[in-house]
Structure formats: structure tokens, C-alpha cells
Predict the 3D structure of the following.
Amino acid sequence: MANKTKGQEMLSALSYTKKNVFEEASTEKIKAIYDYSDGYMTFLDDAKTEREATEVAIAMLKKAGYTEYVLGDKISVGDKRYLNQQGKCLIAFRVGTEDIAKEGIRILAAHIDSPRIDLKQIPMYEDSGMGFLKTHYYGGVKKYQWTAIPLALHGVVVKADGEVVKVVIGEDDKDPVFYINDLLPHLGQRQSAEPLGTAIAGEALNILIGGLPYADEEVSEKIKLTALSILNDKYGITEEDFISAELSLVPAFKARDIGFDRALIGAYGHDDRVCSYPAITALIDTENTDKTVMVVLADKEEIGSVGMTGMQSDVLVDVINEISANLGKNSAVVRSKSKCLSADVTAAYDPNFPDVYEKRNSAIISCGTTMSKFTGARGKSSTNDASAEYVGFIRKLFADNGIIWQTAELGKVDAGGGGTVAMYIANHNIETVDLGVPVISMHAPYEVVSKADVYSTYEAFVAFIK
């Protein structure tokens, strides 16, 4: 090969080019990427709701020696604890020997809720030989994507006597699944002329649950009664118990390899369990650090991070206050010295829909974990715009640890946009920037990510907290 010219050498030295993780990886590294993804795919199948993700993460933490913490407990250096917030939000922390008044706490904050279809409180009815459940969709969904696919029912029912009953129907191969009807194309001319956003109305997302009439001629709602009798026999619940229930429909699909080379993963709920799993595993795998480290797996991000289990709750600050007080430190000082990665996904550039992306500033699949200095919409509204100094700190950290990463915006300036939990954490005077995995078909019932980006995100989290 001919020697490079001076200009070519200067261009190589001075310009920025994204690197493909697979192209840079050794054979051993590629094996590690694929092996790590196997564990992640198991996590996806076991944790399709925020309650299930909390349960699975707690089991992982317990296996690693973490014990439950409640506000007011004594905290000491060396402790490995977790706080279970209402079964839907988890804060795990390990107290190191470093002075948190000087070094702060290293925080990884992800969310474990995903777009889905929730049941209304009085959902069950029958019409024209079919039984249905009324729903109210949760988060930013394209409603037409949820019709005519197999769905599984997940959640809890709190009975009149206070007993909590866990429900999962549709995940076992022998289980029935559920379904949302769509209109046949032969009669769908008017529907096809509608914009995608209005072609399927929210009130039309009714769940098909059966068609067998109860064997009693005196009963007026025979199909509804069949469904109620099955639920009562299996779970001991009545129709009134739906009032105190949290039941959701999620895709009944399993996580699967995508493509001939199995380099990609298709699954429900990558947003944001694809960052939650690396966060928990990074915490568990970094025992040899003196830093105080915290992982937050929050709920309600898809609807504004509200409520007691969302990132706008005071529980994060409460835990930091408790750690600080137990170690004899000022909580305000600790927060000002702390650093956070808001571990959330971003949109991967899709060449099938190039009009909404600005390619130079988009995440490219398999080019590593992705930093978004800001998210928001249009004029950077509703975002945390991280400081240049903090971005520079993360750049150096990743360079020192050999992390392949990239930077991106969420589409063209006026194309739309989106938000994350970063701004709520930054409001507590904690330096924060978004970092996570690029996703194809985000918020669809079946999303796609690269195994290389999942592993790159895990490596980045380890570097950040070790």
C-alpha cells in the first residue's frame, strides 16, 4: 500500500469517524458480546413489566450479596443494599471507601417501564358472540402496531381481602394468548385513507378474550360469565377485583436473534431494559472499586416520570440524604459532587426512513453506546443540556478505558424529539448526561438493537463506576 500523503495523515489525525464495534473487536471480544447478549435476552423474556423487572433485578442483587434496605436503616461503608419502591422502582447502592463529600456518588439511572396496553378498571363486556376487555394504552404507541398480534396478560390483582394475586397468561407455549381485532382490507378503504395516528382509535383497542357461552340459558352475558368463571377458578377473583388491579397486555413474542449472522436482537421492551440490564450487571461486576455507586431503575418514564415510582419522586434524594447522614456528610455537597449517566436509549439511524434523521448527528447501529448531550424537542425544550466540561470528562473516561462510543441527536431539529429522566436528576444539582443503546423501531411491539451496542453500553457503565 502506498504511503499516505501529508494531507491524508492530517485528515486521519484531525477528523472524527465513527467506529463499528464488530470491526474493531477481536474474535474473543465478539464471543463475549454474544455471550453477554444471551443473558440479556433471558432478562427480557423474564421482565416484561416494571414489576417483573424489579423482581428479576432483586433476585440478581440478592445472589450477589445485596440485602434489602428501607429508609431509616443504618448504612455503613461496605454495605450493598437495595430499596424496593412499591415493587415498581428499584434503587441499589454499594457504599465505597472514597469520601463522598469529595468524590460524590456515581449514579446509573435507567427506567423499566415500556409502552403497553393497560386494562381499564371496569373492562369486561361481550358483544356479537365475542368477549372483550376495554383498555387504555400506556406511553407513546403507534396504535395500529398493536392490532392483530398475539398478546400476553401480565400484572397483579388485589382482591377485596387484600390478597395480591400475580397474573401471567400467554407466555407459556400451552397458554392461550389475546388479540386486538383489525379491519379486513376488503372493507378497509376508508380506514386506509386515514392518517396512521387516527386509523385505529384508542377506544378500539379492545382485547379479544373468548367466545364460549356459559351453559345456562337464564344467563344474559354468557361469554362474559365464562371468562369470569375461568378467572375465578384459577385466581379466585371477581369482576369487582379489576378495580384494584394493574393488568397490562404486552406482546407474547420472545426475544430472538435477528439476521443470518445473529448480530441483532429483536424483542419487546428494549426501551429501556437494554440499559437497565447493563446497569445492574455493571454494578454487580465491579466489586473492586472504592467508589460509592448507585443504580436507579425507575418507573413511569414513558408517561412523564411521575408518581412515587417515577424519577420525579423525592425517593432518589431521600436515599442520597440517608447515605450522606449515615456517613456524616452534607447531602447538598454530596449531590454537587455526584455524577450520573441517564441510561436511556436513542433512535438509531434507519436508512429506510432517512427524511427524519440528520445522518452526521445520528446514532449508527453497531457503532457503540451513544451519548446524547441533549434530547428534548425542537429548540431543546424539556431537556437537560449537559455541560461541555461534563461531556469532556466522559470522553476522557471512555478514551482511557478503550470504550467505542458515539454521539447523536434524536432526529432532525424540527422532526419531533423526545425526553428522558436526565433533566429530573440534573434538577437535584447532579451532573447528568444521556448515554444508551440505539434502537430501531423504538416503541414498537418488537424493537431491534445490536448486540455490539448492548455490550458497549455495559463496558461504558463499568468504566464509569469502577
